[in-house]
């Protein structure tokens, strides 16, 4: 076969595969969005276009349910979990890289041990512990529980990033009279911004999308988070599919915005933390 034709066929097949995977990945999101703004009459019609537009589902879920309260609860928990994760994992990963103690590599690998188990299996002992100390059914219980899963991954990511960091910059700061803790937060963190933002994305997404721990730890209706709250709305208010799709779309908006604005830092953080200098 002619090399030019072979190259053309290879590129054509690759292009078809890319388009197919893209459509396969984005079509559920597209269907969710248009189902949230469809009229009730056209909701179950087999149309790829939205058809008749209607904001009734959005207005109903915002005015007739506790969805705004659930939204604020999730936002508070996700933001505080993210802040706590970044504040703790940065000096921890720094200490693992800078220390010369034996067994540091084993400690880094052991931090990912919890990810070998299903979340539901870990939720039972966490729930028993929080009940015994009286912290169940609180936002604090969710923040601490989410942090137990975001911190090990955050340490592992930042550890891979700090391995390639030029610590001569830090030593220059010491000469100028900067303390070690101040050097971490005022010099090292700004220079390792892609890695920090990678941890921010992972922590926020994990906390924002959690359903299992909210279901187990939260019983008060005013403390529920979005995934758990949306499921309870379906049970309590007999919401239709349009309202559920409108709620699901609003849940996805912060995640889409985060990835839209921070994707380049996210990719750079993963690549810089994975490449060995």
Automatic annotation (TrEMBL):
Stretches assigned to the ABC transmembrane type-1 domain: 71-262
Pfam family name, one: BPD_transp_1
Cross-referenced InterPro entries: BP-dep_ABC_trans_perm (IPR050901), MetI-like (IPR000515), MetI-like_sf (IPR035906)
GO biological process: transmembrane transport
Transmembrane segments: 12-33, 70-94, 106-130, 142-162, 183-209, 244-267
Membrane topology listed for this record: Multi-pass membrane protein
Protein name: ABC transporter permease
Species: Candidatus Entotheonella gemina
